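Review this chain:
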Amino acid sequence: MTRSSHTSLRGGPEFDAVRALLARWGDAARDVGDDAAVLELPRGDSLVASVDATIEQHHFRQGWLTPREIGYRAAVAAVSDLAAMAATPRAMLVALALPDHWRRDIDAIADGLGEAALEYAIPIVGGNITAASELSLTLTVLGTARDAVRRAGLGAGDSLWVTGMLGGPGAALRALVNGSDPAPDHRERFARPRARVHEARWLAAEGVTAGIDVSDGLASDLAQLAAASGVVIEVELERLPLARGVTAEQALESGEEYELIVGSRGDLDVAAFRERFGIPLTRIGRAHRGSADVVLTRAGARVANPPGYDHLSR
């Protein structure tokens, strides 16, 4: 589809801004202009929907990221929720709260959103724009799945696996908070994360039993998985795939990774996964019967769990 498919909008500064965004997005957006988006679903699929917010002073500070990176990163964070359920991205809606001092950067923010929309084949189909005191991007993403991967499917005896390398975003954030420059590879993982959409569908085809993306930190998201499935998850810290210079303890608390944690009743073909996607797939532990809990061990001895991230704990 091209931008000519959009419904005509009336005049005025708000809709001039919308038209400017649509012109910026080009083929990354389609059919915008009605009160709601209309999507035709493939026959037999389920609709998968999620909302994610990226807020200045909470998820980033001005100067940490370029405006384009802010837009791109916000979109990837939202798309990662679809990847966690092995859903195919279908459409995205963007609610942009824009302070006066960010208006000069709206083109670059839009470019980042549009880049992610094209990269993940998730066209922008509508949204909202309003004035605000702090920059905020709230993205609603819609996807489809024939058999969505859920958090509650993990069973006793299942192995736990994680994609990629862990700890890079947390290392970058520690450096930024301390006023120093992150290592380039750590900054890349923080500013340009990846939503594991294709990896998730490969894993779903291999029959994984449950899944979640690593957004609040490995320890916290493992606890979510254990609670949803009603099992004890035991993780061997020696097995964690760590980014350069990162400890296991740091990796456990590193948020906004957007890697995937999945469970599997049998072994997964790690060589085929790496050959296909260029990143590792690592078995880190196993699920056991018992009351929902996460048990961390090193050399067979239990170690204390980190407190875990809570969005309302500050």
Remarks:
- Residues 151-303 form a domain with the Phosphoribosyl-aminoimidazole Synthetase; Chain A, domain 2 fold (CATH 3.90.650.10).
- The chain has two domains: 14-34+45-145, 151-303.
